[in-house]
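Chapter summary example.
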Amino acid sequence: MFNICVVDSDGDSRKEICERIDEYFADFDVEYRTELIDCRSLTVTEICCECGYDLAILDISDAAYRKGLLEYSQLLRKWHRETKVIFISDKIYCVLDTFDYDPDYFIFKPQTESRIINAMDHLFNFKTNKESSSLTIGIKSARHIIMKNSILYMEHYRHNTRIVCEDKEIVCHEKISTLLEKLDSRQFVRCHCSFGVNLRHVRTFSRTQIVLSNGDVIPCSRSNQKTVRAALRDIHEVII
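The structure predicted for these 240 residues follows.
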C-alpha cells in the first residue's frame, strides 16, 4: 500500500494533483491511498505523521505556511525515513528555500500537470517495475509502456539511450545503467559500455558480437564476455 499526502491551501490544486496521482497508478496493479490536507489545518503535525507516508507533495507557494511545511517535511522523514518529498511552488525562486530540506523533486506550479507524473515515475518506478511485466519510460509529458520481453537491446545514442523493441524504438534520457536496475539481471545484462541486451533475444554469441532474433548485430566487449556467457548458459536458449 502506497500512502501519499498532498498538502496545499488551494482545494482545486489538491484535486488536480490527486487526479494526476490516479492517472499515474492507473497502469499499475498497486494499492494506494491519497490523503488531501489543507495546510492551514496542520497544527498537530505529529498526528499526520503516524501513518508513514511513501510520498509527500507539499505546496510551498504561500509564504505564510512555507517555513512550517519545510519543517513538516523533516518531521515526516523523522517518522518514516523512506518518505519521498516533492515541493511545489508558483514562485520559481522558492527552490532556493528547499536546499536545506533535501527534497527529492521540485516542480514549478504552472508545470504541475506535465511534471507530476514524471516526478512520480522517477521516484517510484523501482518499486513497481521490478514486479511488473512492463517498463514505463517518461519522455517530457508522455509515458511509454514497454513490455519487457519485447526489448531487444539498449544503446547509448547521442547522449541518450535508444531502446530497440520488436515493434518500435524509443529514445529517452535515462542511462543504460539506470534502465538495467529496473530490469531482471538474469535476463538483461551489459554486453558493452554502450549496449545492454535482452538475453532471450540472443541467437548466436561470439567473442566480439551478438546476433539477435531480428538479425541485428551488436558488439560484445572482452571485459563483458564472461558475464554474458554465464548468463546465457542460465537462459538455455541460445547457441554459445
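To summarize the output: The two ends are 44 Å apart (CA to CA).
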